[in-house]
From TrEMBL:
It comes from Massilia suwonensis. Pfam families: PEP-CTERM. Residues 1-22 form the signal peptide. Residues 166-190 form the Ice-binding protein C-terminal domain. This is PEP-CTERM sorting domain-containing protein. Keywords: Signal. It comes from the Bacteria.
Amino acid sequence: MQLAKFAAVLAAALTFSGSAQAALLLNSSGSSANTVSDFSTPGAVSFDLDLEHLSPTMLRFQLEEADLLGPLSLNAIVRNLSGAALNGFHFNLQGISFLSAGSVTPTFGALGGVSSGLDYASIAFASPEWAEFHFGNPLLAAGGADWLLDTRGLAAGDTFVISAEVPEPSTFALMLPALCMAGMMAARRRKQG
C-alpha cells in the first residue's frame, strides 16, 4: 500500500515538474576543457561558464512554452580558469535578439565599457579580469539587472544559440611590440653611425 502511494506521489510530481520546464540547454560546443552548468528556469536562461581554454563556446537552447510569456531574462557567471587575463568578452546571439541591456559586474577587474546591439554584447575591461564576471544579475545583487531576450515571434520548440568568446587581439596590437622594437633598433643604429 505504501509503495502504491509513493508511486502516485512520484507520478504527480513528475507531471507538475514537466509543465514548468525552462529553456532547455540542448548542447554546448567548444573546448572540452570549458564547462557549462545550466541553471535555467521558466522565463530565465541562466548558466555558469568555466573557461579553462579561451576558445569560443556555443550554447544551443530550445524554447519552452513558459519562456514565451514575456521577455526571457539572461544571466551568466563566467569564470576565468585559464590563468590568462581577460581584457574583453563577447556574447553573440543567433535565432533570438536582445531586448534590453543589463549589468556586467567584474569581480577583480574594472569595467571599461559595454556595447550591445540586437545580436551582440561586447565587454571591455579597463583593467584585466583574472577571476570571474557576472553578465546580468545571477546572484541577485542590489542594483544589478539581467539582460532581456526578445521572444516575440518565436514559438515553443524554436532554438537559439549563445556564443561566448574572448575577442582575438587585433593585428595591430600583435604587431605593436615588433614595431616598437624595430624603431628602437633603427634609432640605435642611427646613434652608432
